[in-house]
Write a structure and sequence with these properties.
Elements: H1 2-6, E1 11-12, E2 20-23, E3 31-32, H2 39-45, E4 50-54, H3 55-61, E5 66-71, E6 81-88, E7 103-107, H4 110-119, E8 124-128, E9 143-148, H5 152-156, E10 159-168, E11 170-174, H6 176-180, H7 182-201, E12 204-211, H8 216-222, E13 230-233, E14 239-246, H9 250-260, E15 263-269
Parallel strand pairs: 7-8, 7-9
Antiparallel strand pairs: 1-2, 2-3, 4-11, 5-11, 6-9, 6-10, 12-14, 12-15, 13-14
């Protein structure tokens, strides 16, 4: 919701439990808020032109969709999530190849899990988990296939990761027939420009400053930039400089710029960065 709002594609609904919504944009006729597990199937069937889900659920459902690109964010960090195989921390198993035939596996991704173990030549008894998978080891299951972003929850449950099945970002997917339509494809690509521009701006700010000619090189030496700072000469011979920098570094950058001779420093928020 925050990403769409930042992209000037604000999702409007009557309440937080309303699963029908709208976006005031001529390219968007209808919005539904659904579980990511279902979205790839509905998009593949043509019920919707595009959807936002995870690569994990595209793989689990085997849905035939076109990827419009990843939205590089996750629940806790900007890192992707991983679908991993984990065993008890004190287990003698250190790789999937160490697992015996008939190994009991619990997972919210049964189809992906069956394919993975079959490809590795391990006959596994795969059972669908409805949650709390890590609590089922060792009494109910021998290992778990679960999703993790940082691995902390699995370690806290006393589990150890032995393999990664899939790395997954949030992803925008399209119905193949819709994507083949030139007008709809153009609309999809334009929406992705806005979404990716807003993602690129996250954690970035615009720094603007003035600097006397004699201090220009010293200021530029401490000023990071996404590409290259914009430098314009003023009528009095001084320079106006602006650059996009990481917000996390701004508390170090501004004092360093001031010490190097910069004046009239401004820090401004950025809503989008489109290459």
């Amino acid at each position: 919701m925050e990403l769409f709002a930042a992209a000037d594609l604000t999702v409007v609904r009557s309440s937080s439990v309303d699963y029908r919504a709208s976006i005031d944009d001529p390219r968007v006729s209808e919005v539904r808020i659904l579980r990511p597990q279902e979205i790839p199937v509905y998009v593949a069937e043509g019920l919707f032109d595009i959807g936002i889900t995870g690569r994990d659920w595209v793989s689990e459902t085997g849905s035939e969709v076109v990827s419009l690109g990843e939205l590089a964010y996750s629940k806790a960090t900007s890192s992707p999530v991983r679908v991993v195989v984990a065993v008890a921390g004190d287990s003698d198993v250190h790789s999937v190849d160490d697992l015996p035939d008939g190994v009991r596996v619990t997972s919210e991704y049964p189809e992906m899990t069956r394919r993975f173990f079959a490809e590795r030549g391990v006959r596994a008894d795969v059972r669908l988990s409805y949650g709390a998978s890590e609590a089922k080891i060792p009494d109910i299951a021998d290992c778990v296939v679960d999703i993790t972003e940082t691995g902390r929850a699995l370690r806290a449950a006393g589990l150890r990761i032995i393999d990664t099945i899939l790395t997954s970002y949030t992803e925008v997917v399209a119905n193949p027939a819709s994507y083949a339509d030139p007008d709809r494809r153009r609309a999809m690509e334009q929406l992705m420009i806005l979404l990716n521009g807003s993602l690129a701006a996250r954690g970035r700010v615009l720094v603007k400053l003035n600097v006397p000619a004699q201090h220009r090189d010293a200021v530029l030496a401490v000023l990071p930039s996404a590409k290259s700072p914009t430098v314009n000469q003023l009528a009095n011979g001084d320079f106006a400089v602006e650059s996009v920098v990481d917000k996390s570094e701004i508390n170090r950058i501004i004092p360093a710029l001031s010490e190097a001779g910069a004046t009239d420093l401004l820090e401004l928020p950025i809503s989008k960065i489109v290459p």
